[in-house]
Amino acid sequence: MGFASFWQDARKSGQQYLATQHAESLESVVRDGNLEYTKETAGNESQPSYQEASGAAVEKESPLGYEINWFTVIFLNIGQMIGTGVFSTPGSILSGLGSVGLSLFFWFIGLLIAFSGFSTYLELASYFPNRSGAQVVYLEQAYPRPKYFFPTAYAMLNILLAFSSSNAIVLSTYTFRIAGTEPTEWQAKGVAIAGFTLATIVVIISNKWSLRFSNVIGVIKVLTLVFISITGFVVLGGRVKSIPDPGANFCDSFAGATGDASGVVRALVRVNYAYEGWSNSFNMVNEIKKPIKTILWAGALSLAIVAVLYMLCNIAYFAAVPKQDVLESGTGVAALFFEAVFGPGNAARGLNFLVLLSSFGNLVSNLIGSSRIIRVLPYPAFPAGGIYAGSVSFFYATYCFTGIGILAACGVYYWVWTHFLPRRGNYAICQTVIVLDSGAQTHKLNKVPNSELAEWDAKHDVVGKQISSWSRVDSTTGSNEDEVIRQRVLDEKTNNYREV
């Protein structure tokens, strides 16, 4: 009886129903050729927006609530930016560039690139202030035809080329550093998988508490980098006896700068990766009250905080650790810093724990943002690959050809699914809006026989919502029982709007 009741409740909670609405709530439609744009509003106090009807459904009220305020915006971004990059990549960046001075300059270039991206996303978000999902929304609306192609391709790219695994690997590295042991390859992978699984569980349990957990970890991350920065100033002041010449790496700091274009490009990629996360709050726009105004200053502030701390931490590393040791540090330059300043005892292990916690918090912040993207994708995406996982030795353009190959495979899949099979099966693919018990909305794609298309179109609006019986047009009078639904149609010749 217990199991039967459980499965009965599970089926009941998963029931889906078609959304119906009265004629008064039907939004006006703008048509431009074969594109149909509907006016959409949401409960986050944002302005209405027009969106192509084939895009993911807009939720009038966010089923996840409105738990994200300015403080959470700041630390969602910080939580994803400060993960493993500033602790693990300075050595590889120095290896690619050859000089300390050029390495520091590249961190500033990374800030400029990140701020350019932030400004672009802010403008795009202002067009769609009631949609969570960030880049998948912008691609979906920028390229609405072919229908569903870009969201599908984006989902595939997320499955194959997501970058979160490197954060889990660094988490595993610092776990074994704390234990004082050298892991085997499979031990390191096992701990990385366990860390990622635990982060996923944290996000699944509660939306509110996962956001609060992310905030707490974000504060700890900032305090950790502030501590490293202050320690760096202490080292530069000559107060650490174990480091007799803290300014050695800054004398003729541009000596050894490389002319290797490949090394420069790799270093720039790693710096950009360290700033990855400035867009995290854009993934949750529909859960933020007055999102554009809030993200405008809170998002910019988070990027500025991280940039300053990154620069100060790198200065601290180079003050405490000899250049050659940084080059050979791999993903453990922060650990070398702790050991150089505090020795290999408990203090270093304690600070290693803070780095481990930072890596775990990055996984949580990344999963929070990714979960919003997954909600608007045709199918879910799972983390794989990463910034280091693609390193190959047989052909330098492997990354490019892999990406192009994936897009080509998506194109073939899309053509078969939306063109070849419907023609062979004599049906059309039509979308409907379904609403889950939680209030979440999504689209369902239906196979409608061509002989039934006229009837289908008469019963559904352009978004896919079923038109209720009292809002249908009377067949004899040509008017609605309650009111006339006006549609704004774009006249392609005059480029003006007219009402019909």
What would you note in describing this structure?
Strand 3 (29-32) and strand 4 form a beta hairpin. By secondary structure, the chain is mainly α. 55% of the residues lie in helices and 9% in strands. It folds into two domains: 16-43 and 430-499, no CATH class; 70-391, Amino acid/polyamine transporter I, CATH 1.20.1740.10. Residues 1-27, 379-394 and 470-500 have low confidence and may be disordered.
- Fill in the CATH topology of the largest domain: Amino acid/polyamine transporter I
Largest sheet: 3 strands, antiparallel
Give the full name of the CATH homologous superfamily of the largest domain: Amino acid/polyamine transporter I
How helical, in percent, are the residues?
Answer: 55-70%
State the distance separating the first and last CA atoms. 59 Å
Class of the largest domain in CATH?
A: Mainly Alpha
- Summed up, the helix count is 17
Oligomer: single chain
Please mark out the parts with pLDDT under 50 across 5 or more consecutive residues, or reply none.
1-27, 379-394, 470-500
* Overall strand count: 10
CATH architecture of the largest domain: Up-down Bundle
Described by the principal axes of the CA atoms, the overall outline is elongated
**Mean pLDDT score:** 76
Radius of gyration: 27 Å
Order of helices and strands: HEEEEEHHHHHHHHHHHHHHHEEHEEE
Q: Which class of secondary structure composition applies to the elements?
A: mainly alpha
Strand order of the largest sheet: 1-6-7
> β content, as a range?
5-15%
- Overall number of domains: 2
